[in-house]
Every structure is written in structure tokens, then in C-alpha cells.
Amino acid sequence: MDGRNLAVQEIITLTPEQFTRFQRLIYRETGIRMQEGKVTLLSNRIRQRLRHHGISSFDEYYRLLTSGTVPGEMASFIDCITTNETHFFRTPTHFEWFGGLFLTEFATRIREGGHEPVLRVWSAACSTGEELYSLAICAAENAHRLVGCRRVFLGTDISEAVLARAREARYTSRALELVEQRRLDRAFVADPDGQHWTVKPAIRQGCEFRRHNLLEPMRGGPFDCIFIRNVMIYFDRGSKEAAVRHLVDALAPGGYLVVGPADGIHDLVGQLQKRDTFLYQKP
């Protein structure tokens, strides 16, 4: 491919017909509905895959993607088009609730014989792992309440790329903006470069990451607490209904669902009882 063609490739965007074709494919694979105003964003993301394969047109890439002839390409495509930016202790009040009222109530149930000594927490759509490790840090800080209690923390995402980064557990200062110094010292090891920090093994113990599509039933659990925040804003009504149904099914009796302020699922939670603006409980 000559420089002239590469220059043309850099400025073109998906035609309406091409956008609709990729939009339907993304929805079928992930449940995410790409809005009409995202043509430029989607075009830029797909061009990354064109450059990777040395392909000069969106149509040619669509044929390659849907042919199944390149193992793992669909996963790479999904990794490319999904946005995954987060940081530790995002929306601090949610973690204050988890480390305070939730763990106090949970420890009391164990002490009174109302729950087995196992805490199961699921961070759905966990991205690069900041949310799950934040929850594990809260539990570690409350270890005195959880003596003899096994802790299981599961993070899932549809993107294998972000899951690999989550397992690495190494983060930049940007992801740690909301972590106060005492937590940073207790839960992380600073890299020699002074620009990265790695979650300590004691925190990572009990944390697992695996791929999962929210449109599919969850195996494992039931979970005492599920975090699913600011993800379903990308879903349409049908996708939300399927995802919420699977989340509710995965909750243990008395378990809590923590949602984001813009997820818009208040009329889909069925039997769950609203406890706060961000919090629902299963009877």
C-alpha cells in the first residue's frame, strides 16, 4: 500500500451503510448499541484493525471479521471498539458503603449463623481491574470483621485485552488519583520508575478475572454483592433486560446490586428492593 492510499485511509469514515453493518454486528456480539453520532469514533477504532492487517477498506475488513478465518479477530475487534477507562475508588460513596454498612451487616450474619463464612463479590464489566481491587482493599481493611471468612472476588469483562491488564495489576498514577497515601502504602508496591504501582499479593489473593458477556447467564455464585456501574448506558432496552435478569439470578438472597447513576435500570430490577439511589437488595 503506497503513502497516497494510506493518507486517504486516514481521513475516510464509514459510510451510513457500513456503519449500520458494523453497528448490527457489535450489537449481536456484545449487546452494545453504537449511537448514530459515533461514526467518527467507530471509524477511528476500526482503522486500527485495518492497519494491523494491512487492509485498505472497511468492507474488506468486515468480510475478514465475519468469515472466521482469522482466529481471535472478533475478540480483538471487540477489544478495540469498547471504551475502558476507570480508576480506583471511583464514586467513593459506593466503597464507603461496601467497607462500612455492607461488611458490618455481612459479618453479623456470619456470626449469627445466617450465612456461611464465604464472601462472594462480582465486579461485572470490570475493565482493567481497578473496581475489583478497590473492593478487595476494602475487605482487607476490614479483615478483623472477616476472621475465618474466605473471600472470593471475581472480575469479568467482554474484552480479553483489559482482563490481561487487570491480571497484571500494575497501574499508573492516573488510575490512583483517589487513593490516599495510607492506602497506597498498604495495598501497593511502587515500581522503581516512580510512575507505576502494583497491587500487593495479599490483596490480589482471592481475586480472579475471566471473560463474560453480560447477555449470557453467569456461572458461579451466588454473589453477596455485585457491582455493575456505568455500563448499561451503552445498552438498549432489550439488552438491559437480558443483562439485569442475569444479574438478579446471580445474586444470593439478601445480596446487593450496586449500579451507576446513569444506567437507567430502576424499572427492570423486578423483585429487588431499592435501598438507595445506587443500591438494590434481593429479598
Structure description:
With 283 residues, the protein is an alpha/beta fold. The protein folds into 2 domains: 79 residues, Chemotaxis receptor methyltransferase CheR, N-terminal domain (Chemotaxis Receptor Methyltransferase Cher, domain 1), CATH 1.10.155.10; 190 residues, Rossmann fold (3-Layer(aba) Sandwich), CATH 3.40.50.150. Helices cover 44% and strands 18% of the residues. It has 11 helices and 10 strands. A 7-stranded mixed β-sheet has the order 6-2-1-7-8-10-9. Strand 9 and strand 10 form a beta hairpin. Helix 3 packs antiparallel against helix 5 and helix 6 crosses helix 7. It is globular, with a radius of gyration of 21 Å. The termini are far apart. The N terminus is likely disordered.
Briefly say what this structure is.
By secondary structure, this protein is α/β, with parallel strands linked by helices. 44% of the residues lie in helices and 18% in strands.
